Amino acid sequence: MPEHSLLSELNDRSREVFRRVVEAYLDTGEPVGSRTLTRDMSERVSAATIRNVMQDLEHLGLLNSPHISAGRLPTQIGLRLFVDALMEAGPVTETDRSAIDETVGHDTSDTGLLLDRIGGALSALTHGASLVLTPKQEAPIRHIEFVSLAADRALVVLVFADGRVENRVFTPPLGQTPSSMREAGNFLNAIGEGRTLTDLRASITKEITASRQQLDGLAAELVSTGLALWEGDGSDSRLIVRGRANLLDHEVEDLERIRVLFDDLERKRDIARFLELAEDGEGVRIFIGSENKLFSLSGSSLVVSPYMNADRKIVGAVGVIGPTRLNYGRIVPIVDYTAQLVGRVLSGRKG
């Protein structure tokens, strides 16, 4: 049932019961019983009445009961409804703000060190594991060259303005010849000096679309394919994970899930996919349980927000991961504030 339909099924009493069950669960991690709620309800109602409401909420798929005689817990659907429709997330507290600000009060000339401190602060504040994707550092290109190694193997050599030289062996499109590769390299060097790979890729796409390039079809395909491979495999993005031990402090039924989670994180080859979780909007996004396909793990939640450079382009992301019973109302503003702070600091720096 869609979220708005579920919400319309709840009257004022059932909304309050549902909200109090979720809040109590997020606070204690324990099933919530009807007698507990009778002490907190805004109106005087009996435990029997609350039990009936809980049964209705269970029928809607918002609550479940781990045991026949136990209280209720929110389901993943219930947590999503609570987060999207009923949660009250206020501004970041002054204490949390000061702790985050303190991490950038030191020397900020080293971006990697700055984001490492940010990750440590997020982990300490939220008692979860923090995730920070550092921005890709791209230097302008000084020279590019394609070298044929065999019919199905080629080498691309890139010399960057900062003196760095990188080589990558790749499979060229069928039909390439040494002369077409030289032609591709000459074309790139004519338009590419002083540009980054990202800028160069955009220029090539524009040239090909406008049919103004001097490359034949095969050379154009080589350029496009070669740069696509470089852009995917040559990213300088780095994922910083801090506070993994914090996850073990929570009462998690299956600690194997935590091990799988970090194995997934450490094995991710294309960690830039982490940005895809945040690219649909500028604000914080919340992934609960099995909604988080990236880590192929249910039973955990991810709160993530992108940060931007001075050109309002997403260049990285910060987030917090932990059990589904995260204190969303507190963690959401912390992640949001941290992402905005990182963006401001990086945007105020030259280069």
Automatic annotation (TrEMBL):
Pfam families xrefs: HrcA
Record carries keyword Lipoprotein: no
Keyword Metal-binding: no
All residue ranges annotated as the Heat-inducible transcription repressor HrcA C-terminal domain in the record: 114-332
GO MF terms, alphabetically ordered: DNA binding
Lineage: superkingdom: Bacteria
GO BP of this protein: negative regulation of DNA-templated transcription
Keywords carried by this UniProt record: Repressor, Stress response, Transcription, Transcription regulation
Protein purpose: Negative regulator of class I heat shock genes (grpE-dnaK-dnaJ and groELS operons). Prevents heat-shock induction of these operons.
Family: Belongs to the HrcA family.
Protein name in UniProt: Heat-inducible transcription repressor HrcA
Organism, scientific name: Paracoccus aminophilus JCM 7686
